Each structure stands twice: as C-alpha cells, then as structure tokens.
C-alpha cells in the first residue's frame, strides 16, 4: 500500500488536505476512443517490438507503492520513457481525478508488458479534482506532456481527453473484466501518441488542463538513469 498526502482543490484557491491510502494500482492500456489514434499508438509500440493486445482496453495490475508525487525517479538504463495519463482515485466513496505519468521500460515492454509497467515509478500530481466537478464538461479537458531531451524542453504529447474512453466507460469496462474500483484504488487511464515518437528524457512534465473552470493540474519530475553493468 502507499499513503499519499493529496490536496483536493475546492475552488477559489482553496484546498483540503487528505491522506489517501492506495491499495490497488491499475494501468489501463489501449483505451482509445478514437480507433484510428489507438491504432497509431499500437503501431508505434509494435515498432519497438511490443505485441498487439488480445483485446482492448487491457487492465494491468501494478504494485501500489509505484505511484507517488516525488519530484524525481530512478530508472535502469536508457530505455524508459514517460507518458501523460489522467488518473482516477477512489476514496471515501468518491472518485477524484489527477494527472500522472505511466513511466515504462520500453525494452522490457517488448517481451513483457505487465513486467515493464512494474519496472518504473508512476509519478503523479499531489492535487486532485473531484470527478463530479468536471464530468459535465469532461470532453473539454486537455492533456499535455513536455520532455527535456538533450537539455531542451519540447512538447511531447498534446490532445483532448476525448482520445481516451471516458471515466464512466473505462470503469464499466473494468467491471466487465471482473475488476472492482473500490476505495483505495488508483487507475491510470491511457495516453496520447508521442509527437516525434517515443524516446527517453532527462525530465518529464505532465499537465491536465480544465479550460472551463480555468485550472490546471501538473507534475514534473527528473529522471536519474542508473547504469546497466551486467
């Protein structure tokens, strides 16, 4: 399990602090609402040797202590990369929305997707919104990520959350596969294609923007690469 001290945004610059225990961490894969865009991402991964999924969406289980709001992570070798995903968190019978990065070891992904998801931390924002506050204008939300590559900060991903299935749809799909989105569960919910292709970075920033209510969630983290010696 992992206890994270979140801030719940209440509006008008007000926040409520809340410690939430994460007991279950789920990574939803191939969640595209737009089948053309999803196919592009599948082909993108196929170029790296990742096999096509047997069905979509797929729900991978990852150790709960992989998620957290730390400003830096350590990875093994040069083959990992981040990707922006909205995250759903259930606590006290209520569902919250945050922003996270499904940082993944791409080399391991070529022979074991579930293992590759387990290899890396899943950095997330320490601020959450109530899903009920954005559900009415969900399709207006925007996802972005920025990567620092060779010292240059570049736009890495950008698009509306409409690229992915809606929270309600994803949770229904999860339930149909026997999943239970109960208190203490966090679910990362899919990503966008990378602009210029998937590649490693020295730092990564993920952003979820709500243009209707005029607010933004973001999290940035440094990536420390550990050497591979055998």
UniProtKB/TrEMBL annotation:
Any GO molecular function: catalytic activity
Identification of the protein by name: DUF2848 domain-containing protein
Organism field: Paraburkholderia caffeinitolerans
Stored InterPro entries: DUF2848, Fumarylacetoacetase_C_sf
């Amino acid at each position: 399990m992992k206890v994270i001290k979140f801030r719940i945004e209440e509006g008008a610059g007000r926040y409520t602090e809340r410690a939430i225990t994460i007991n279950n961490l789920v990574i939803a894969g191939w969640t595209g609402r737009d089948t053309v865009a999803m196919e592009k991402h599948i082909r993108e991964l196929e170029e790296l040797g990742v096999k096509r999924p047997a069905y979509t969406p797929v729900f991978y289980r990852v150790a709960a202590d992989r998620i957290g709001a730390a400003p830096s992570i350590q990875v093994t070798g040069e083959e990992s990369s981040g990707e922006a995903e909205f995250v759903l968190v259930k606590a006290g019978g209520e569902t919250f929305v945050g922003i996270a990065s499904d940082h993944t070891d791409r080399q391991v992904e070529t022979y074991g997707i579930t293992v590759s998801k387990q290899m890396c931390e899943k950095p997330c924002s320490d601020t959450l919104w109530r899903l009920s506050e954005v559900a009415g204008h969900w399709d207006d939300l925007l996802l972005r990520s920025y990567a620092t590559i060779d010292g240059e900060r570049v736009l890495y991903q950008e698009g509306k959350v409409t690229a992915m299935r809606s929270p309600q749809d994803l949770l229904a799909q999860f339930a149909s596969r026997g999943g239970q989105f109960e208190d203490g569960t966090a679910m990362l919910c899919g990503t966008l294609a990378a602009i210029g292709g998937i590649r490693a970075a020295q730092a990564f920033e993920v952003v979820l923007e709500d243009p209707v209510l005029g607010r933004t969630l973001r999290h940035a983290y440094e990536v420390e690469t550990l050497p591979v010696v055998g």
